[in-house]
Design goal:
Blueprint lengths: L8 H21 L21 H24 L5 H41 L6 H46 L1 H4 L5 H40 L15 H20 L3 H24 L6 H50 L4 H18 L1 H26 L17
Helix pairs in contact: 1-2, 2-3, 3-4, 3-6, 3-10, 4-6, 6-10, 6-11, 7-9, 7-10, 7-11, 8-9, 8-11
């Protein structure tokens, strides 16, 4: 799954993690301070090509060149340009989109304060001021849209290259793999699903980490406007503490109610594959796909789907109760502050957005649990290939008996 696309995956990913940590430590400890960062606080699209941002772009390129150059010499790989440089480009665009969110959060303060002044003091704001801030938003949004569209186009090619690498790897070993149940589906469909889901979850995780790095200082600063929390009262850094505790609670809740879903999804793929295989064989062989046989196979499909629906029902109960409460959780935290009238409308909007960004980052597992279930199911199917190629016993779930017909 990984060795076909990345050079020496275990060592590669550990080295990438260590190199990233060292590069970030050097940036925040020394390199980032070499350029005056005041220009990066400008509210507007020009911040993206200010001196601090240009300096970071250069620093990123140099760090990437060192890391990629080492691996291309140390362990040459036919897909290195896509797996190393392509992954680095996706990482950079994730960082850039987080910076767009920070820029828009900074924009919220003056814009909503202007609305508050205009509504409370007629004539205190002009049309020019409003259109000026709206144009600022439009310019930032335009840059964001261009970057997102180009990134999605590149990611589509990146995923297909990964699928191609896995496809070529498994096809080269097809004589050893063809006897595994549903082998054709695993090569044709699961390779694409694995690459797509892994890329999506990886980008989401990276974005969550980068969002935390960007917005935690913002939320820490905005916590100074919140004197106390409901019931709890005054505590240090109340918004940050509340975001962490609430996110941990949600993650634990959904992990508990959804723990059985990966195995059920895997079994669902097995019974679907068995039913589909019999139908395909029946296209050329009149002795196959007889109605009694199909009835038995389809009853297995039905039973597994009904069991899946039941498990997703109570999973969705926990998920939607949590998410609906989550929609108003920040407002609940701000009730004492709003009642006391110690913040402006603009500051409140900045707090709500920053809290949402930090909260969503901590809720990575909550937001991604259904996707993780799909990934685990696909991984379980491809692990049978990996075990066969390495002469290892098949995973225990492969030996489980099929459900009996109703």
């Amino acid at each position: 799954m990984l060795v076909s696309f990345f050079p020496r995956p275990r060592l590669f990913f550990w080295s990438a993690l260590i190199w990233t940590a060292l590069s970030m430590a050097f940036w925040y400890g020394y390199a980032g301070g070499l350029v005056d960062s005041s220009a990066a606080a400008v509210i507007g699209v020009s911040r993206f090509w200010s001196a601090p941002f240009l300096w970071f772009y250069l620093y990123y390129v140099v760090s990437l060149a060192i890391f990629a150059g080492f691996w291309m010499v140390f362990s040459p790989h036919p897909w290195a340009s896509w797996s190393i440089l392509g992954s680095a480009l996706i990482l950079f665009t994730s960082y850039f989109q987080v910076q767009v969110s920070v820029a828009l959060n900074d924009w919220r303060g003056p814009f909503y304060n202007l609305i508050q002044n205009a509504l409370s003091k007629p004539g205190s704001a002009t049309r020019e001021e409003f259109f000026g801030l709206i144009f600022t938003f439009a310019s930032i949004a335009t840059v964001a849209i261009v970057v997102i569209v180009l990134t999605q186009f590149f990611i589509s090619h990146y995923i297909f290259r990964w699928r191609t690498a896995m496809n070529d790897y498994y096809v080269a070993n097809w004589p050893r793999l063809r006897s595994i149940e549903g082998a054709s589906q695993r090569v044709q469909e699961d390779t694409m699903k694995f690459a797509t889901i892994t890329e999506r979850l990886g980008v989401s995780l990276i974005s969550s980490v980068l969002t935390l790095i960007a917005f935690l200082p913002v939320l820490l600063r905005l916590s100074s406007y919140v004197s106390e929390l409901p019931i709890i009262g005054a505590i240090p850094y109340p918004l940050v503490v509340a975001a962490i505790v609430w996110s941990i609670f949600g993650t634990g809740l959904l992990a508990l109610v959804g723990i059985r879903l990966p195995g059920i999804e895997f079994r669902n793929q097995r019974v679907e594959a068995a039913y589909r295989k019999e139908l395909v064989l029946g296209e050329d062989d009149p002795a196959r796909a007889e109605p009694p046989t199909l009835a038995v196979l389809f009853s297995n499909v039905r039973r597994n789907y009904f069991w899946l629906y039941l498990n997703y029902m109570y999973f969705n109960v926990g998920r939607y109760v949590y998410l609906q409460t989550d929609a108003i959780f920040a407002y609940i935290l701000l009730v004492p502050t709003i009642v006391a009238g110690t913040i402006t409308f603009g500051i409140m909007q900045q707090i709500l957005n920053a809290f949402s960004q930090v909260q969503n980052s901590f809720q990575y597992l909550v937001n991604s649990w259904s996707t993780i279930v799909d990934l685990i199911s696909v991984q379980k199917r491809l692990l049978a290939f990996e075990a066969t190629l390495h002469g290892e016993p098949l995973p225990p779930i492969e030996a489980e008996a099929e459900p009996q017909p109703l």
